[in-house]
Amino acid sequence: MGRLSRRFCLAVGVSLSLLAMTQGQAKTVKLSPDQLKAVAIQDLQLGQPERALRYSDALLKRDDQDVMSHLIRARALRDLQQFGTARTSAKTAWSLSETKAELYSSSRTMAQILSFQGHRTRAQWWLRRAVEHAPDEQANQQAIGDFRYVKARNPWLARISFSITPDSNINNGSSERSSFLNYRLSEIIAGQPVDYQLPGTARALSGIEYSLGLTTRYRFSETPTQAHDIIFTADVRHYTLSSSAKALAPNAEGNDFAFASYTLGYGHKRINLDRRGEFRTVFDIGQS
Description:
By secondary structure, the protein is α+β, with helices and mostly antiparallel strands. The chain has helices at 3-10, 33-45, 49-62, 67-79, 83-96, 100-117, 120-132, 137-152, 180-190, 243-248; strands at residues 16-22, 25-31, 156-167, 207-222, 226-241, 259-272, 277-287.
């Protein structure tokens, strides 16, 4: 694991004492840092977080820059439900990480702690980091599976979109210089055509559109066959005018054509037809 492997090589011959019981008699066994980490990990798997915590503390007294020891400590504290200090250890491991494997393990450990606490949105953010730093395809698939698992159990769901795009007609204006309808009416009424020039704000004005969209859902009740949601949506658009648009309409500003809409609603989803079908109902109120 990069720096960890180098540190372990330098630590050859360095040992820590582990008190073991053999046939009712105390016996001192010499273990290398690698071996003690393996024992601590095994204790975590066997449901012995207190002992794993003691070993990780001993390892960190020897080297407080050791990423793996911080991760063992974070996992042990998580199992002991000491979530605040567990997050601190996981964050320390993240800050010390240098290789992709270390970054992957640190971010995934942090996500597990947050998920245990019920902070699933924050856990998803850390799992995205784990996917980004996955050292191989198997690790990548594991992180993706974790992300989908947490997402499926997260009552909050949010989608945010943002774009900056050029627009040749931000005001839905006419591409013509004059009004053909008024031209024809004047010919009928006055007997001769009159060219009605359109004002600048009635002409197509070009510029830049800044768009922000948000949809967030909170699932306040769920059973195996139905779900109830509160849904909020927002669509906000602002504009800046191009120099040619300012020449056509010198008194206009981009914000004159700004648009925003907000809705708040209730959604109901139900699975029917022996789980072969699904229907959704949404009621909402809004303002534009």
